[in-house]
Design a protein that fits this description.
The protein is an alpha/beta fold. It has helices at 7-18, 58-71, 86-99, 110-121, 136-145, 157-167, 191-200, 223-226, 255-264, 266-269, 276-291, 293-313, 334-346, 374-391; strands at 28-29, 35-38, 41-45, 103-107, 127-131, 148-152, 174-179, 204-208, 235-239, 249-253, 326-330, 349-350, 353-354, 363-367. The longest helix has 21 residues, at 293-313. The structure holds pyridoxal-5'-phosphate (PLP).
Length: 393
């Protein structure tokens, strides 16, 4: 009998299908925007992280084309070898200026920024305390670091303090990890309290502003700005690929932190520098965020309109608490979430089902854009009312 060492893959796939956990890609055509073409049909887009509608903006496209013509398509190496351009430094200075930090460092993705920063600042002798709903990149960064990891219940500062008072003295350094906007729920971390706790227990605090940058705070600098914590000692992470409409990630913080990461973050040192096109597009996006605050204001008007309209029209819908453009409602099973997502798509609305293992409970996740029109939001609510008859919401 021959044994196939890969036979388990087919069995695992079958298990994933049976649980309604199976996922597959869907191709969009044309430029991203408030409406997109999905499987040949125009649908209203409530599925993207392009909150300000910049990923299809002419100015970002022009910046990317100009940088490609000037510097080529690839950056050709690590930033420490052949991969560094003045454009990277310009972008890092723009991020530091938006965040009001001493410096910033650009990574090839937000995921890599988290892996690299966490693995660089803590190790085997150290402790990580991490919110249970943190993004995969924070969780895997914690594992990569080799530190001892304790998860605390979502946003539960009492549980966090209890853990620290019992465990902190057994470790050299300690790092608290949190998303600022939780990406699959839309709520915010209690940042001022986390900062107080970090100070009390001599911990570093890393906050991931992926969904907050360009979206939250008066100048779009994120939750740190929103909570009045600008200038505090913190490790701020973010992405260039959500509201900033490009690709890449960053760490913002003190000049010493950034200098240290350039020497010790493996996912920065041993990977190719961000492409000229992505770098230039992100730089153009930051300039737009700073020069056109009306985009952010329109986003929040749309968020408020949707939330109020949903509460009024769909009072039985189980909305998760949110303070961001991410609005989710819960469904009893992954199968129900898939079916509601499918009915929405048939009604011309693109809003995906989010299921385990990404989240503990199944839901539909709606993300609002600055470029949505009132009619787009009204069509979404009308479709939900129609579908809700069958699903009891
Ligand atoms: C999207 C996301 C990331 C990853 O950013 P990429 O640039 O897409 O790799 C990291 N953290 C959080 C909280 C995110 O939502």
């Amino acid at each position: 009998m021959t044994i196939d060492p890969y036979a388990w893959i087919e069995q695992s796939l079958a298990t994933i299908h049976r649980a309604d956990w199976y996922r597959a890609v869907q191709a969009l055509s044309d430029r991203p925007g408030a409406t997109v073409v999905l499987a040949g049909r125009e649908v209203i887009n409530f599925a993207s992280n392009d909150y300000l509608g910049l990923a299809g903006d002419e100015r970002l496209i022009a910046a990317a084309i100009a940088a490609t013509r000037e510097f080529g398509t690839g950056s050709t190496g690590s930033r420490l070898l052949s991969g560094h351009r003045q454009l990277h430094r310009d972008l890092e200075k723009a991020i530091a200026s938006l965040k009001q930090t001493e410096d910033a460092l650009v990574f090839s993705s937000g995921y890599l920024a988290n892996l690299g920063a966490i693995a660089a600042v803590v190790g085997k002798r150290d402790l990580i305390v991490s919110d249970q709903y943190n993004h995969s990149s924070l969780k895997n960064g914690a594992i990569l670091s080799g530190a001892t990891i304790i998860e605390y219940s979502h946003c539960d500062v009492v549980a966090l303090k209890t853990q620290l008072s019992q465990q902190r003295q057994n470790y050299r350094r300690c790092l608290i990890l949190t998303d600022s906007v939780f990406s699959m729920d839309g709520d915010l971390c209690p940042l001022p309290t986390l900062l107080e706790i970090a100070e009390e227990f001599n911990c570093m605090l890393l906050v991931d502003e992926a969904h907050a940058t360009g979206v939250i705070g008066k100048n779009g600098a994120g939750c740190v700005e929103h909570f009045g914590c600008t200038g505090k000692q913190l490790i701020q992470i973010g992405t260039l690929s959500k509201a900033l409409g490009s690709l890449g990630g960053y760490v913002a913080g003190s000049a010493n932190l950034i200098d240290f990461l350039r020497n010790r973050a493996p996912t920065w040192i041993y990977t190719t520098g961000l492409s000229p096109a992505d770098t230039a597009a992100a730089l153009a996006a930051i300039q737009i965020v700073q020069q056109e605050p009306q985009r952010g204001k329109q986003l929040w008007r749309n968020v408020d309109y949707l939330k109020n309209f949903m509460q009024q029209q769909l009072p039985h819908l189980k909305l998760l608490p949110t303070q961001s453009p991410i609005v989710c409602f819960q469904l009893p099973s992954p199968g129900d979430a898939l079916r509601v997502g499918k009915h929405l798509k048939e009604a011309g609305i693109f809003a995906p089902a989010i299921r385990p293992p990404t989240v503990p409970t199944s839901r539909i996740r709606i993300s609002v854009m600055a470029t949505h029109k009132t009619e787009h939001i009204e069509e979404l609510v009308a479709a939900l009312k129609h579908i809700g008859i069958r699903f009891d919401f």
